[in-house]
Every structure is written in C-alpha cells, then in structure tokens.
Design goal:
39% of the residues lie in helices and 15% in strands. By secondary structure, it is of the alpha+beta class.
Length: 204
C-alpha cells in the first residue's frame, strides 16, 4: 500500500503595515505619502527599511529600469506627494474656519426641535451621531436635508445647551472634532402669518 503523500507546510509571512498610509510597507510607493512613509519606516522599523530601501535593495529593484524611467518615477511620486500635502493643508484650513450651528426652532408652543448643522465639515458621520443624540436624550433624532439642501441632524425637543456640551466633550463619534470647535447657537421661532381675517370688512 502506497504511503500517503505529505504536503509541505509553507510558513506564512507576517504582513507589516505602514503607520502612515496603512498599506503593507512593500506598497508604500503607491501611496500619496511615500516620503513620510519612508521616514516613518526608517524610525520605527530600521531593519525593514534597510531591506527595502538600502542601496543594494534599490539597485536590485531598479536594475531593469532605465535612468530616464527612474527619474520619471521619482518625479511622479514627488508630484503625488505634493498634491496630497496640499489637499491635507486645505482640509485643515477649512476645518479651522468652519463652525457648527445649533438652531432651536419653535414650531408650535409645545413643539420644539434642535437642528445641528455642519457636523460633516469635520468628518463626523451623521447617522451614528444622530443615534448618539437619540440615545443620550431618549428622543427622536434623524438626518434630514435643510432648505439649502444640506444634511443636518434634527433632534426632537429643546436640547441646544446639552448638544453644545456634547460637542465640546468630543465623545465617541464626536471625537473627530477639534478641541476648540466653534459653536453658534440660534433661536428660530415659527413665523406667524400676518393675514387679516376674511370676515373683517373694510371700513369706509
């Protein structure tokens, strides 16, 4: 009887992920932060850095590339990095100038709603945030579009002060907010119709 063949077990290679782009370190060159990735790798994992970016490693990697192709690759990487850095700086400046608006809207004498606008400018996920407010205040909260067509969170009841406290506390899904987020509170009452009754005749 023939012996059963035994398959050789190939040891699994541990994957090391970059702390900057979150790619496996072998693929950092395809990210838009290659320069910062290399700096991080050299500081945090010097042995891995040497295996990938030492002179010998680069020679082996670039051996089949012409000088012109190598220069073009470096230029493309630098160009992508510059674009990524410019975009990141723009987002930071936008967040610095942005503010969150909390509006207390009185629909009737007994019905008041609290509207929270511009959370998405700070990368806050609106649906989880609405759920957080609903759980906190034990009331209804939903994501709707305001008259300007922008998403906002509407919470049932007058909770403007409590919402402001939560924004500054920066808990859970609100943790992405900056420490000194600008908050503006407004009070919006329902407009009363100024219409004369049809039964009122004109006095001549």
């Amino acid at each position: 009887m023939a012996e059963a063949s035994t398959s050789q077990v190939v040891p699994q290679k541990d994957i090391v992920y970059c702390g900057i782009c979150q790619f496996p370190v072998e693929y950092c060159e395809f990210s838009n932060s290659f320069k910062r990735c290399k700096q991080w790798l050299e500081e945090e994992l010097p042995e891995v850095y040497i295996s990938l970016y030492s002179e010998n490693a680069l020679k082996d990697k670039m051996g089949s590339l012409s000088v012109e192709a190598e220069k073009k690759l470096e230029q493309d990487v630098a160009k992508n990095e510059a674009k990524a850095e410019k975009k990141a700086l723009k987002e930071i400046e936008q967040k610095k100038s942005s503010k969150i608006t909390i509006i207390r809207e009185e629909r009737t004498k007994r019905k008041v709603t609290t509207h929270i606008q511009n959370l998405d400018a700070f990368s806050v996920e609106l649906k989880p945030a609405a759920k957080l407010f609903a759980q906190k205040f034990a009331t209804g909260a939903s994501v709707t579009k305001n008259p300007q067509g922008k998403d906002e969170i509407v919470v049932q009841g007058d909770v403007t002060d409590e919402v402001e406290d939560m924004l500054h506390a920066r808990q859970k899904v609100l943790s992405v907010l900056p420490e000194k987020v600008k908050v503006i509170k407004e009070d919006k009452k329902k407009k009363k119709a100024n219409v004369e009754g049809a039964e009122d005749g004109h006095q001549e």
